[in-house]
Amino acid sequence: MAMRLDLLSILIVEDVAPMRQLLMAILSALGVGTILSAASGDEGFDIFCNETPDIVITDWHMEPGDGIELTQKIRTSPLSPNKTAPVIMLTGFSALKKIEQSRDAGVTEYLSKPFTAEKLIKRITHVIENPRDFILTASYFGPDRRRRELTGYSGPYRRAADTSVDMNDVVLVG
Question: For 136, phi and psi rounded to 5 degrees?
Answer without folding.
Answer: -125, 115
